[in-house]
Specification:
single chain; alpha+beta; four-stranded antiparallel sheet; 6 strands; 21% helix; 37% strand
Length: 131
């Protein structure tokens, strides 16, 4: 099962040239860029680990791509995403986010439904690596 979170998640994986083009777009908008990684892509896990500090005042995508390459060397079998932050309203809000690296063995997400009292139902998520 392919994890679908963020922009472009239903498209084939972006190439480095396509990633760089998206980063250039973000930089032209004046957005700060952050690189994050995780081994737990659960939809409710919104707090991924940051790779370094957010990159403010960059003018060239090469700096982001260098950080992405460094993150891939250490966390190449994890999910890695790029976030763009717009701080024009004095709030660091994510404007764009997309996955740029996936493990060779993607995590499966399974929705489990449990029938309870009467006609009530509860739902829970479970995750497991493909085997």
């Amino acid at each position: 099962m392919r994890i679908t979170q963020g922009c472009f998640s239903f498209l084939p994986d972006l190439t480095d040239d396509q990633i760089s083009t998206q980063v250039e777009y973000c930089l032209r908008k004046g957005w700060a860029i952050g690189v994050e990684y995780t081994d737990d892509p659960h939809p409710r896990n919104t707090y991924w680990e940051m790779w370094g500090n957010p990159m403010f005042d960059l003018k060239d995508a090469k700096g982001v791509m260098m950080e992405l390459d460094a993150c891939r060397k250490v966390h190449g079998n994890d999910y890695i995403r790029i976030n763009a932050f717009d701080n024009t309203r004095a709030v660091e809000s994510v404007t764009m986010s997309f996955i740029v690296n996936r493990p060779a063995d993607e995590t499966k997400l399974k929705l489990a439904r449990t029938d309870t009292n009467g006609r009530s139902q509860t739902y829970s998520w479970t995750t497991a690596r493909n085997s």
